[in-house]
């Protein structure tokens, strides 16, 4: 079992922002670390950058199972809150549709034809998706 601790740091004028983290084993020994300069952004986003980069490393290095810790209450609450099935149907459908695609990340800016109806239903009546998204880092 490994633990990932992530944190962000912002100077007083918000123009120098960095994030980083460390991976430790079950005995607390240092396994891997990372840090990077983010640039100018809001403080809450630095924690998210740190988590993102930490998770990318964890996937690459196959660091699992993994415990994640952060001192950002907003980030922890957003992760622990989760979403209901209704708010996750488009993402679930994408994952199922793409599981036989070529390896690697695939992105698009258009709604896939098979998800148009589902996406429209979400946009028309599912405010739980919008509420959940607006709660993250707000």
Write up this protein.
The chain is 41% helix and 22% strand. The protein is of the alpha+beta class. It has two domains: 2-81, Nucleotidyltransferase, domain 5 (2-Layer Sandwich), CATH 3.30.420; 86-135, no CATH class. Strands 3-2-1-4 form a four-stranded mixed sheet. GO terms for molecular function: nucleic acid binding; RNA-DNA hybrid ribonuclease activity. This is Ribonuclease H domain.
In which order are the strands of the major sheet placed?
3-2-1-4
**How much helical structure, as a percent, in the residues?**
40-55%
Unreliably modeled segments: 127-138
Total domain count: 2
CATH architect. name of the largest domain: 2-Layer Sandwich
**CATH class placement of the largest domain:** Alpha Beta
Number of separate strands: 4
Radius of gyration: 18 Å
What is the element string, with H for helices and E for strands? EEEHEHHHH
Oligomer: single chain
What's this model, at a glance?
The protein is α+β, with helices and mostly antiparallel strands and 138 residues long.
Task: Describe the SSE topology.
Layout: E1 2-10, E2 17-24, E3 30-37, H1 43-61, E4 66-70, H2 73-81, H3 89-98, H4 116-125, H5 127-135
Parallel strand pairs: 1-4
Antiparallel strand pairs: 1-2, 2-3
């Amino acid at each position: 079992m490994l633990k990932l601790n992530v944190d962000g740091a912002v100077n007083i004028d918000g123009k120098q922002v960095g994030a980083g983290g460390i991976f430790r084993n079950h005995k607390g020994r240092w396994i891997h670390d990372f840090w990077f300069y983010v640039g100018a952004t809001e403080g809450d986003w630095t924690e998210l950058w740190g988590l993102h980069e930490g998770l990318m490393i964890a996937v690459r290095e196959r660091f699992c199972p993994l415990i994640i810790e952060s001192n950002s209450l907003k980030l922890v609450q957003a992760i622990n809150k989760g979403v209901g099935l209704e708010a996750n149907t488009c993402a679930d459908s994408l994952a199922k549709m793409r599981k036989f695609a070529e390896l690697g990340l695939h992105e698009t800016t258009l709604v896939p034809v098979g998800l148009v109806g589902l996406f429209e239903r979400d946009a028309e009546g599912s405010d739980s998706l919008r509420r959940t998204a607006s709660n993250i880092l707000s």
